[in-house]
Write a structure and sequence with these properties.
10 strands, nucleotide-binding, Rossmann fold, Amino acid/amide ABC transporter ATP-binding protein 1, HAAT family, 4-stranded antiparallel sheet, alpha/beta
Length: 260
């Protein structure tokens, strides 16, 4: 689905992404791991159009999408979330979801004057869909609560919910477990698995929690110093000498990866 070929992103003399080549299969939940500074988030930002690449190519289903801006990729079904949730804090959780779909009739001055019935019908449909998403994520009780007042884990669920308000094809999740308690992380994992199995969502997940990665991701890709080191199951990754050295600075295979 996504092909990344010899991708580079330089900041002056610093090579944050340094010749990364990888494939994301349609319908997969791919884990992306690596030590801090490995280039994982920068890779996400380049694929999702937040940053232009220095060189290299990104394609989706055979179409070159290299350097396309986020709003164009959004309409192609490419969405991403961030390590720190980007909610609209003063708006309710329901309203945060309802504002996601683009091209709403109420966005034009003409329609606010002459298309009020159409706007009302669209808002009813969007409200119903938002409530369905909130129920799916088991946070329907937060519908009227301001998004800025809910917990970190609930904000992450809300971000995931925003991807459900449009026809997402692939979703890039950046450290979905950061600052989230274990109970809510399990809820997030359940939602990802269900979206993948029932709606064929493709996910790419950056995460440091190896238990979470092991539960939901196959395959797993490991990066270090801007390069792809290895790809396979998490068990294969853990047994890879280069990966162990990248995490621990040692070739001892009898140690587990920690703090990944």
């Amino acid at each position: 689905m996504i092909e990344v070929h010899d991708l580079h992103k330089h900041f002056g003399g610093f090579h944050a992404v340094d010749g990364a080549t990888l494939s994301i299969a349609e319908g997969s939940i791919t884990g992306l791991i690596g030590p801090n500074g490995a280039g994982k988030t920068t890779l996400f930002n380049v694929i999702a159009g937040v940053l232009p690449p220095t060189s290299g190519r990104v394609s989706m289903a055979g179409e070159d999408i290299t350097g396309l801006p986020p709003h164009e990729l959004f309409h192609k079904g490419v969405l991403r979330t961030f390590q720190i949730a980007h909610e609209f804090g003063s708006m309710t959780c329901r309203d945060n979801l309802m504002m996601v779909p683009g091209g709403q009739s109420g966005e034009t001055l003409w329609n606010t004057w002459f298309g009020r019935r159409r706007i009302a019908e669209e808002e009813r449909a969007l409200r119903a869909k938002a409530d369905e998403v909130l129920e799916f994520l088991t946070i329907e009780h937060l519908a009227e609560q301001r998004a800025g007042e809910v917990s970190g884990g609930q904000k992450k669920l809300l971000e995931l919910g925003r991807t459900m308000m449009v026809d997402a094809r692939i979703v890039f999740l950046d450290e979905v477990g950061a600052g989230v308690n274990r109970t809510l992380l399990n809820t997030i994992g359940d939602a990802i698995l269900q979206l993948n199995r029932e709606r064929n969502y493709t996910f790419v997940v950056i995460e440091h929690d190896m238990d979470f990665i092991e539960r939901i991701c196959d395959p797993v890709i490991c990066m270090a110093e801007g390069k792809v080191l290895a790809e396979g199951t998490l068990a294969e990754i853990k047994a890879n000498e280069q990966v162990i050295e990248a995490y621990l600075g040692t070739g001892l295979k009898n140690k587990d990866m920690v703090g990944a």
